[in-house]
Amino acid sequence: MATEIKVPELPESVSEATVGDWQKQQGDGVQRDENLVDLETDKVVLEVPAVGDGVLVEIKVEAGATVAAGDVLGYLEEGATASGGETDASADTADEASTSDPASAEAETESAGSGETAPASPAAQKLMAENDIAAAAVKGSGKDGRITKADVQTAIDQRESAQPAAAPASAAKSADDAEQVERQALASAPQERVEQRVPMTRIRARIAERLLDVSQNTAMLTTFNEVDMQQVIDTRKQYKEQFEKTHEVRLGFMSFFVKAAVEALKRFPGVNSSIDAGDIVYHGYYDIGVAVSSPRGLLVPVLRDADQMSYATVESTIRDLGQRAQKGKITMDELSGGTFTITNGGVFGSWLSTPIINPPQAAILGMHATKERPVVVDGEIVIRPMMALALSYDHRVVDGREAVLFLRTIKELLEDPSRLLLQI
Fold first, then answer.
1. Cut 0.85: pTM above it
2. Roughly what angle, to the nearest 10 degrees, separates helices 400-415 and 230-247?
3. In CATH, which superfamily holds the domain spanning 83-162?
4. Active-site choice (95, 157, 213, 395)
5. Could you point out which of 38, 142, 178, 303 has its C-alpha 20 to 30 Å from the C-alpha of 195?
6. Is position 283 annotated as part of the catalytic site?
7. pLDDT tens digits, residue range 396-418?
């Protein structure tokens, strides 16, 4: 009996999802907990695993469709086998025919020897039809030369390897891959007035919605300052190798900024707040969101209780979150909450920008590229590695004086990192 493959319960505040790539095709054998299909929500990509071993007998909802929790995506025949099981059944039938009617079996053997096409399993026939491959071009490895699905896949791989490398949009594995291929195609034809229309992904649509909401429903202002990064650079250079040997993670700049932000938030609790309806909620904990880029857009995973984290824990957690963001493995829980956000446009070379608040938070800190330039220190002109800092804040919650002093505190803590250890 076929088992329904349903859309799982969606995360809180998510009402629907878009069906992404089916990782298995109709007729494929699957194993328990193996991913069948990706579902794209406005925050993360969810996987729908198989509830047991069996065969994906029907795909009911194709990629691109919108679904809700509980909707049936397809059907799984538990306990069934794919091409391997079909091959065995065919072999049993052939054995029975051979035993009951030797003359018939001899005729089949002669027919096969005369060049007629060997039989193929249903899954193999489907795959050949989908890829326009003739049975005569496939060498069967099953009993009596029977063509299995694996044989067809081998033939497909051999055909593709013999062709020149190409990357048409139809070959893209996901909507993001297709979009990238189409952009490359446009760039390769500069002499033509061409256009390409692609649907906005659910995640990017959600990002656009939130950014528009911030611009319309907050009193956002930005204050700027700059920090001399020499002390941080020297400290990192001095302890870099020892730190990595001890903690098995590189010492980066982000841990300094996270710890400085936490200390500044303790001194200016209004910046560590949010608006809920008509109330201001002051948070007595420090969950720092760190913006990371991913193929699907900007994500902001959260470092829970960052005030209790060591520098090594901050660095290793950020590294793990960044790697999983690239693979689409960030969970909804890791994206939820957050009391303050840090974004680093400097990794892309940004010299100065105005970061947009991550609602319902009250503020966001923007880091930028470190540039060596002349500055005046103790009455002398010297070359220093300077970084521009930007603090965008909701003026409904945070006063200008508080915002300026908060940013100045971060500057002072970074220009003398020992202050972070002494909390002065």
1. no
2. 60
3. E3-binding domain (4.10.320.10)
4. 395
5. 38
6. no
7. 999 999 999 999 999 999 999 98
